[in-house]
Amino acid sequence: MNSAEIKLRKAEIEDREIIWEMIQQSIERRRQDGSTQWQNGYPNINTVESDIAKGFGYILTVDGEPAVYSALILNDEPAYSTIEGAWLSNGEFVVVHRVAIDEKFAGQGLVKKLFDHIEEFTKSHGIQSVKVDTNHDNIAMLKILESKGYSYCGEVVLAGGIRKAFEKIII
């Protein structure tokens, strides 16, 4: 993995099936882990198509092969305007949603690499911070956020559920 070329690129409509496959694998992993996240029909293929159409979809590739999917949204998450708690900042931010990994790449630290690339992307666009939320029972993501230095800010309500919200100041 160390010698592999890892890049973040925008998702194209041709990537729709591979992204949807990654998300379906993640939905199943959440279910097997006993998590309630993503168990109610969201995200779905329409979510993927919408992400791509709006330019939100990004793919982390390993030697050109899609490995991790994420939606990166600038400054726009209405659910984040109401937080039980407090954000670290109120400047511009990148929202990270819908992180999903292809299972053949699981367990290789690629989601951490994804966050490195997202932080680079954020910095290169002159954006102040990264905001992200996850379910209280998504232990894998909670551990990643902790290891990457994200601060727990409180709770937000998203997709009908209460989510733990995190932020990291980048610049």
From TrEMBL:
Keywords: Transferase. It comes from the Bacteria. Pfam families: Acetyltransf_1 (PF00583). Gene3D superfamilies: 3.40.630.30. SUPFAM superfamilies: Acyl-CoA N-acyltransferases (Nat). GO terms for molecular function: acyltransferase activity, transferring groups other than amino-acyl groups. InterPro entries: Acyl_CoA_acyltransferase, GNAT_dom. Residues 6-171 form the N-acetyltransferase domain. This is GCN5 family acetyltransferase.
